[in-house]
Amino acid sequence: MPRIRLQSTIAFIAVCCAALATSASSREHPVCQAHPSRSGYAAAPNQHPACPKYRANAEPFGDARPLPAERTFVSPAVDNAIQAITAKMKDQSLAAVFANTLPNTLDTTVSLFQQYPTLSSYIITGDINAMWLRDSTYQVLPYLRYMQQDANLRNLIHGAINRQVQYVLSDVYGSSFNRDALSGTGVFDGDSTWRSSFLGTSYNAMLNKIVYERKYSVDSLSAVMKLSYGFYNATRSLDAFDSNWVAAMALIIDTLQIQTQDTAQEDKNGGPQYTFQRLTVEPKDSLIHGRGYPCSYTGMIKGFFRASDDAQIYCFSIPANAMAVVELRHTAEILTALGQSALATQALTLAASVDQAIYAHGVVQHRTAGQIFAYEVDGFGNYIFMDDAPAPSLLSLPYVGYVNASDPLYLRTRAAVLSNANPWYFSGAATDGVGGAHYGTGWIWQLSIAVRAFTSTSDTEILKCLKDLVDSTVGTGFMHEAFYLDDYGYYSRPWVAWGNSFFGDLILYLSDTRPYLIYT
Ligand SMILES: *[C@@H]1O[C@H](CO)[C@@H](O)[C@H](O)[C@H]1NC(C)=O
Ligand SMILES: *[C@@H]1O[C@H](CO)[C@@H](O)[C@H](O)[C@H]1NC(C)=O
């Protein structure tokens, strides 16, 4: 998920000042208050359109949801669940953060919910006005369990699946999308530099104006499969899986298959199907020669961007391929139920060869950590060990559903991720955690802390993660994606719905699996 660029900020200032001018309150919610010593959002977060939406008089660790009339979607089932769960919680700060974060996607990001002629939901990320395939899946994931009690909520999620299908069919390499195809040529919205800087063959994507950004990643396509399976698993109904859905899955499976080709095979077969270059000062936002470093066949699927939307170093991401294995198998289950047995077999065959390749090429002997999963490999025998904060990450492999949390290979990998063997692991006086190239050294992501809790088998560690997550909201009641080591008040984003949903989902997970941790 990219950091907001200056252009967007300028656009936001215009929006916010108009809104603030109409606000009568003299007290602002902490999310809108300045941090004394820093720059960026933390210094001037009230230049952000999220701020006027929040209650001007909310107390720290209080109810900071938008007023009911301003919520973009209301689910009685979710609101009832919040009431029932928080009533049992003893820690009032934890309860407040849960009550604010769980509904944040519904409260603030449902930009469109169309019921006719087809269900279609456009769900923005929060402070970036576009729908990411990846984010939108995680944003609605915690609500799946409430669909059976709330038909409208079920329709909303069905509509999100329909949107994802529409987007995949319009450009399978797109990572985030506009609500409507933009009109005109050469004239784009406030995020023009994201779009107009495509070079080379990807230039053509610029003409497909439904695409907001075209950072192909294996985990984005896996996220589409994940949401569909979550819907199926929760409802055991096939009514969201029409012929468009089957066509989108066929395209995803074909594309992932095509991307198992190595660099030499691509050249022999007429060149790469996907390239990406951008004019930028940041190497993490572009690929050398539009293709990245060469790679040699493994059986895994090539990808070019991580879940943070940063460029990969080597093309075979172990966490992204692990997620693909899990979700291809899930998709095969739905395809089988639909009678699409040939496609189901194709998905299962690909999953099996990727799974085998992960163990053949993605397990390495690390100098200090022993035998562990690598983060990325190139198939020539080179690997990089690190972790990137958002799921899918090495830390998240049990959450992804690929390994058992007590698997010794995973446990060695996990210990290495949470140590100085990982270049993006940071440890300070107040806390420790994993960041990544996206924000650079010293920045810890809340998503990674939540993943750590999701995958932990230790009550003590889970409680430490909950404390870190609540403390790092600095009283705003919301997640902020990343904060600077030991300075929770210096954070990267004021309004990030993925982080909010993920925290809400973590509490729901703990409520099921370790209720004594949150209710006593
Ligand atoms: C499927 O649903 C069951 C029961 O609600 C749940 O325990 C399980 O985690 C779900 N699996 C997936 C992959 O979503
Ligand atoms: C994980 O492994 C443990 C020990 O072998 C086993 O008891 C447990 O059922 C496994 N869990 C899963 C989800 O497979």
Automatic annotation (TrEMBL):
PANTHER family: MEIOTICALLY UP-REGULATED GENE 157 PROTEIN. Coiled coil: none annotated. This is Uncharacterized protein. Residues 1-26 form the signal peptide. Keywords: Signal. The keyword Signal applies. It comes from Capsaspora owczarzaki (strain ATCC 30864). It comes from the Eukaryota. GO terms for biological process: carbohydrate metabolic process.
